[in-house]
Amino acid sequence: MKFLDIKLINIEDFSQLVLRFGFNLLVTFIVVFLIYAKNSRRKDFYFSYFAISTTIFTLCFLLESVKLELGFALGLFAIFGIIRYRTDTIPIKEMTYLFVIIGISVINALSNKKVSYLELFFTNVAIIATMWILEKILLLKQEVALNITYEKIENIHLLNKESLLKDIENRTGIKVKRIEIQEINFLRDIAKIRIFHDVNELNGKKTISKE
């Protein structure tokens, strides 16, 4: 049955859409919630990842007949590459996950009949496994240094190390992994300290100074 020369429903194509959409959503869920979320404290990207995944998938799937496949897919990456430099700075790790989500959505939408379901499934599993290995097995957790000016000079003493760490953590809210005392000024009763923490503990700040 047609309306204005367009089929009201195409069972085969609709079934493909539902099947692939569900599969793509499942893969996106695994990447975002089971891999990214467990290794990052940034929750503000969850909405963006799912929204972009859904939009890119449906856009690619419905425009597949236009035969822009490879050029269209590369164009999407180029657009988001431009956005990367035109908007507020997005951390490299979050940007990488964004490209992974886009890539997965494009693959799941544009893979044609020459690609079997087993090949498509293996491709998605390979991407998920790679992300998981990089996050879990290799423990690629970036350590970030933060410079602070500290005024409680008595805590600089080696015997007061625990008090120093506790005081810094209470003030900054950052879980400190280790510290380096760079400079001590007894005349002004201040010390310059470099603290090291996980990259997810703090974003967008380089220096904290206690006046």
From TrEMBL:
InterPro entries: DUF4956. Keywords: Membrane, Transmembrane, Transmembrane helix. The chain crosses the membrane at residues 17-37, 46-64, 70-87, 94-111, 117-134. The keyword ATP-binding does not apply. This is DUF4956 domain-containing protein. It comes from Maribellus comscasis.
